[in-house]
Every structure is written in C-alpha cells, then in structure tokens.
Hints:
It is a single chain. The protein is α/β, with parallel strands linked by helices. The protein folds into two domains: 2-240, no CATH class; 243-392, no CATH class. It is built from 18 helices and seven strands. Strands 3-4-7-5-6 form a five-stranded mixed beta sheet. It has a two-stranded parallel sheet with strand order 1-2. Zinc ion (ZN) is lined by residues 21, 23, 228, 232, 266, 269. Zinc ion binds next to helix 10 and helix 12.
Amino acid sequence: MIIHTSMKKDLPLLRVNSLFHIASLWIVLNIIIFYTTYSQTNPNFNVNLLMDYSAVEKSIDLFEDEYVNTQTLSELRGNRIAASTTGLIANRGNVINILKNFLDSLRYHQIIRDDIYHLEDARKNVANIKELLEEMKKQNFNRRVAATVEQIFPEDANFSITIPVYVVALGHENVDAYVRRIIWHGDTPQFVGENAGELNIVINLTHSIDYGTNVEERFISLLGVVAHEVFHAAFSAYKENSRSWKYFYKNRTEFIDDLLDLTQNEGIAYYLSFDQRGRGFVPRDWNVKIRQVFSEFNNNATQLLSDSITHGRAGQLIRKANLSGSWENYGAMTGMFIAREIDLRLGRATLIETISSGPFDFFLKYSTLSERDSELPKFSTKIEEKIRKKQIK
Ligand SMILES: [Zn+2]
C-alpha cells in the first residue's frame, strides 16, 4: 500500500497496519533522484490497472464551485473506500454516511469543524491536484507502473491480474495511498483480510504537493509507491504457478521461514520504489542506518531460531519487521539493502533469479557477497547455518 507518512505521523500507522498493508512514501521520498523508463516486453505478464478517476475529477469540480451532486459524489466507490478508511484510522467507525454532509458544507463554504477528510486542504491544493492528475493521464500511469514491475520478474512469468485503482481527493492525512481487500456488494464495500476479496488501490492526491518539488518528481514518487503494491500482488500471482515457491510454502515449518519470506518480499518491493529515482543514490546516513537494521535483524532472527520462543513473541517480532513504514522496519529495510547489493554487484538477472528461487537463495546470494567484501554487514553464524542448511534441502 502506499502511504505517505512523515516521522511525526508514524504512530497512528501502527494501528492501521494490521488492517491493510502500508508501504511508505516517506522512505521513497527520502531517497531518490531520477528514474529510468521501462517498456513491457513479456506478453504473458498481464498486470492491468483499471484507473478510476471519477472521484477526483468530480471532487475537483466541487472545489472549483461547479455544480456537483454530493450524494452521487459521496457514493462513488473510491470515495466509499476513502471515507471508511478515514473512519478506521481516526477510530470513528463507519463514517461513509456522513461524507455527504461534509461535502455539502464544503460546497456552501461553511466552516468545517473537525475536517477528518481534509476537504479544505484539498480545495486549497486544487491546482496541484489537477496538475498531477493530468500528468498521470498523459504519462499512462497504469502502463508505467506495470512496466516498472515487469522488469523485476523472470521472462517466463505467466499470469494475469487486474487491480482497480481509485484516485480520490479526500481522506485521512496519514494515508495517501493504500491497498484494501474488498468484496463488493453492489457499490458497498465489505473489507476483508488477506487471501479474501479483491485487491483495490486508493490514491489520495490531496497532499500531492508533499511528494516532490515539481510535478515530475511527484509523479515518480507516486509511481514508486504504487509499483511497490503492485509488485506484491504480482509476486503472489507468480508464486501460485511456481514449483519452488509451492515447495517453500509446503515445507515452511519454522518462524524464521516467515521472516525470511517477508524480508525478501518487502525488500524487493521497497527497492523497486527506491530504484525509480536513481540506482546509485543513497541518503547521507545510509551506512549507519543499514548497520542498525542489520544488527536488529540478526538479534530478532536469532530469537526466532531459539527453541524456547513462544508463538506470541514470534508473531510480535515478525510483525515488527514491517510495521511502520520507516527504518524501524528492520525486515523490510534489511531486505531492501540486500536486494540493492545483489542488483548493483551481481546484476539484475541475479536479483530476478531470487524471485523464482525464493528467500533462501536471496539470503545466500547476499551472504556470498558479504564474504567477499568485509565492508558489508554480515548475518549471525546461526542465521548463516540456517540459510545453508535450508538451501541444500
Ligand atoms: Zn510492502
């Protein structure tokens, strides 16, 4: 999911994270500079993003004082998801039904107290919202995202997924883009957990001004964050047809397996968003941060390997690996670092190989690198043993 967060806003995300996946635009924003364009080459890699711009377009009309039926506007699918997600994050329960009243207040220029959907902000930013929206249409946002994700998959990848993407201009300030799993009853969403319903992506352009200093940068940030989510969706579809992944899930018996799986999945997803803005560029405190997350990874993985660890504690450690969309995500960040080192030192083809071969190979490839270069942080001996033992099986 995409979510724009800033450091001070991290806390509320912890609460929503268990309910929907949150990738952090914060991380993307703090990294990058330029990006490469890719084109799609594999006819069997079918990732279709169905862009739905109706909510943002009608909202723009409303912000510009054109006549808009607020009932209809509040009932658009994108706005229904945005409103209920706002309620969830703000702990207000189901707030879908009150959205129309807020939209009416906005329309009549009444003062909105407790503007939970940030409609006033959106109206103030209408010029930026329009600009980014035009850029998304002009640059074929959906095809750009699909092409970005495709270049990290093996050439024999063969699957087809369709994901609706709703672009809106309202919602909680902490989440600018996110993924929710939904079963639709007509236009009424029922939110469901992992492995149920259909994936839906929502992008709120209200705070698009924060994504970069100009429309090009904002577009790339958005592309990176949506690509993160789409990568996850494509990766699960890929795994369904993969022998080595079926084997992995069938033989997954230990807590550590889950951590390694998550680390690879999140790591590559973050690297993909990161990579959009420049392969070589890293933030100034990169080395210090990487050493910190690596040592946390080693500590927690070693705990997971202990015979005496409880289910509760293990679950806690694994959740923490990708919890808040920042450097505290020791698993995701370690994975991003590993993916980057494999890509830059061993080449894209080698990184793609780990998509088909799975987490043990992903870790083993990095381990080989860290043996060669003493500057690279290393896994603890226990983890090394585990990776090698698992790989041989
Ligand atoms: Zn993710």
